[in-house]
Design a protein that fits this description.
Structural class: alpha+beta
Distance between the termini: 95 Å
Helix content: 25-40%
Radius of gyration: 24 Å
Strand content: 25-35%
Shape: elongated
Number of helices: 2
Largest sheet: 7 strands, antiparallel
Order of helices and strands: HEEEHEEEE
């Protein structure tokens, strides 16, 4: 009876120790996030390479704020490099105003031409570059921080609408 009790206590303690080690390792692995934006210099003040979160490595034509995390469930990316289209959803602990100013400044530095800019409860920036249009929206996060949605689409062609297209 005593041996069974000791065995149960030992099993419980061993399980607790094992699970706590796993939890610590899990937190260390997944708490790293973004160290720098891909558009930033790739070296630190000592000349050593900085770490870039692999998820943002393909987005060289848009600024990515430091500490941002990609929401994979809400993002849809088609294509690659400077020809991708779709929606990239970024979550950040920075304020909406800070992120709006960051994107407004850094996007121009990457060669994008501003089309429109609206500061409101849901703020919007729109840009064009080459044959693409980029729309960036900023919303306050559910609890804290900001959700930034970057939508990239091909630029449409402009032209006159012909009357025969509508059957008249």
């Amino acid at each position: 009876m005593i041996n069974t009790l000791i065995l149960k206590i030992f099993s419980i303690l061993f399980s607790i120790v094992l699970l706590s080690a796993c939890a610590q390792n899990f937190a260390e692995t997944f708490s790293k996030g973004v160290v720098l934006a891909p558009s930033e210099p790739a070296t630190n003040d000592k000349g050593l390479p900085k770490t870039v979160q692999p998820a943002f490595a393909q987005f060289q034509d848009i600024p990515i704020p430091e500490g941002a995390k990609m929401n994979m469930d809400r993002s849809l990316i088609l294509g690659e490099d400077n020809a991708w289209i779709g929606r990239l959803v970024i979550e950040s602990t920075s304020s909406k105003a800070e992120l709006f100013d960051f994107f407004k400044e850094r996007t121009r530095q990457l060669g994008w031409r501003e089309i429109t800019s609206v500061r409101a409860s849901i703020s919007v920036l729109s840009y064009s570059k080459g044959n693409r249009i980029m729309t960036i929206t900023f919303q306050s996060g559910a609890v804290v921080g900001t959700v930034v949605s970057v939508t990239m689409s091909p630029k449409g062609t402009t032209g006159e609408v012909r009357q025969k297209d509508y059957g008249s």
